[in-house]
Design goal:
Strand order of the largest sheet: 3-2-1-4-6-5
CATH superfamily of the largest domain: HUPs
CATH topology of the largest domain: Rossmann fold
Number of strands: 6
Shape: elongated
Number of helices: 10
Distance between the termini: 17 Å
Structural class: alpha/beta
Radius of gyration: 20 Å
Helix content: 25-40%
Strand content: 5-15%
Largest sheet: 6 strands, mixed
Order of helices and strands: HHEHEHEHHEEEHHHH
Number of domains: 2
């Protein structure tokens, strides 16, 4: 388990108050209770700091829920180990086809062609009320998200986002005072946790060095894809799989959208 960042750990706030004096912890718990469905919540657990806080709040509320982690097969090993150890109630949902096999079939994911999120992160919770750790402060796009909202792609699914108005400081203060475990990758400087070498990440070179075995697995999948499809006109620009993979790792042509790097942190 990681340690809370020093600048947050030094604070001594007994409660989380907003500008109107409301206790954010109590408010989040009341929200969770208010929208509890008869069958209980489907809690989307990514293992990130926000999901960890929501899981802790849900337990404090006493409502019924079942937690689920969508396995992509390219998850950081440290994150997987953290969930297994500290979130034992979370069920691992495995995909029917491993990611690297799909890459060979569909091609490498790009920021303008992200087939991976829809297949590996957004399928759970059909017909359920899904609890998430989504927060408005995370990005400009998420600033428009609501406390309760219907899924745009699956109308049978409703999202409940009980910490929608929490700040990042609120998250760390809660973790510090409630002693909520969190993934140690945050102590290495990672701000958000997602798939290793996600095409939406801005630090793929750093990740490639951090997880060399996973990087080799990516390369092998690229190699199989390239050998299968190098005859296509779109792939004529690369003379070898090494050239293709290096281009993919260093591709910075598109602006990064943090909404796509993780699903429910």
């Amino acid at each position: 388990m990681g340690e809370v960042p020093p600048m947050i750990g030094a604070l001594t706030l007994p409660t989380l108050k907003d500008l109107f004096g409301h206790d954010k912890v109590e408010e989040a718990i009341e929200r969770i209770k208010m929208f509890e469905p008869p069958e209980g919540y489907y809690l989307a657990d990514s293992g990130g700091k926000d999901s960890s806080v929501v899981l802790a709040l849900t337990k404090m509320s006493g409502v019924n829920f079942d937690a689920h982690y969508s396995v992509t097969t390219i998850d950081p090993p440290e994150l997987v180990r953290f969930i297994r150890k500290y979130h034992p109630e979370t069920k691992f949902e495995y995909p029917s086809i491993p990611f690297f096999k799909r890459l060979v079939e569909k091609g490498f994911p790009m920021r303008v062609h992200r087939w991976c999120c829809a297949e590996y992160k957004e399928t759970g919770g059909t017909g359920r009320r899904v609890m998430t750790g989504i927060r408005k402060q995370e990005s400009l796009k998420r600033s428009g998200r609501k406390l309760v909202e219907q899924c745009l792609k699956d109308k049978s699914k409703t999202y409940v986002n009980p910490i929608i108005d929490w700040s990042t400081s609120d998250i760390w203060i809660f973790i510090r005072h409630s002693k909520t475990p969190y993934c140690p990758l945050y102590d290495e400087g990672f701000k958000r946790l997602g798939c290793v070498l996600c095409p939406m990440s801005s630090n793929r070179r750093i990740q490639a060095a951090r997880w060399p075995k996973m990087t080799k697995a990516w390369f092998r999948a690229f190699e199989k894809y390239y050998e299968k499809n190098k005859h296509l006109p779109s792939n004529q620009r690369w003379k070898s799989v090494n050239e293709l993979f290096n281009w993919w790792l260093s591709d910075e042509r598109y602006r990064i959208n943090p909404d796509q790097t993780v699903m429910f942190e």
